[in-house]
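Please check this chain.
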Amino acid sequence: MSQVVTQAGRLAVAPMMDWTDRHCRAFHRVLCRNALLYTEMVTSAAIVRGDRGRLLDTGGVAGPVALQLGGSDPGELAEAAAIGAAFGYDEINLNCGCPSDRVQSGCFGAVLMRTPDRVAACVAAMAAAQPREVTVKCRIGVDGQDPAVALPAFLEAVAGAGVRRVTIHARKALLQGLSPKENREIPPLDRELVLRMKDRFPGLHVTINGGVGTLEEARGLLARGIDGVMVGRAAYHEPWEILGRADAAIWGDAPGPSPWQAAAAMRPHVVRHLAAGGQLHDVTRHMLGLFHGRPGARHWRRILSERAHRPGAGPEVLDEALAGLHQDAA
């Protein structure tokens, strides 16, 4: 296991479709030097046959960053993993947890919990094709499976194929009748089962995911012996509260930037993106929660929400939002 990525994995930001793009990752890296960041899930077919330059553009974001792949064909996944490694990603992750209809119809995501031998073949091929570590993100089970039986069997299979790091969303995925959003909220959490898996598989680096809403909650789980905690929507909606405090709270490192410093630090990224023909909203949509709970936060969100999407909007909109917030917070 890469020690850098393993240490970074003490706190990770979950892969989230339509959210954790390269601009989001650039913002999160400004807030936290150490956290492990993930791409959105990208299908192996899209990488092998599509515009891989657009799909895999890292945006110059410093590591460690993991590429999450979706797929179920060992050969295609191996080719996609090799391409991802060549783009500079530090880890290649296989999605075995997404419950969406589109994913099910493609025979990947959470449905792969039913076929651990197939997953083992996939990860073995991915590892053989390139030098980066291959990891897996899964659920505790799907549909009628008994998680106490299905999860250890799944982990046994992937560990036997060489996987040394897994992230477990501590909920079942119910593939019939629940939307992806409902699958994040309705099936009950069973964190105790995930914690028992760490005891049962001491050689695995186990990260727990699902429902973690605060940095204090993450620290509590780490204190119980889990290797890593993955935070999703809380890190996106309250980024400074989670990521801005994490360097000091999780790694004992120097504190990260203040919200004001983080906003200012994103200005060069905005300028580069605009110069390349992008829109301001592409970047600032990920920054709306930066001042969550602080005086002036509403002003910040309003300026960016109303003006950043307008044609020709430039960095002066970010400046105005920040200046107005300073004035409100004084």
The mean pLDDT is 93. The beta strands are 11-13, 36-43, 65-70, 91-96, 133-139, 165-169, 205-209, 228-231. The longest helix spans residues 315-329. DSSP finds 19 helices and eight strands in the chain.
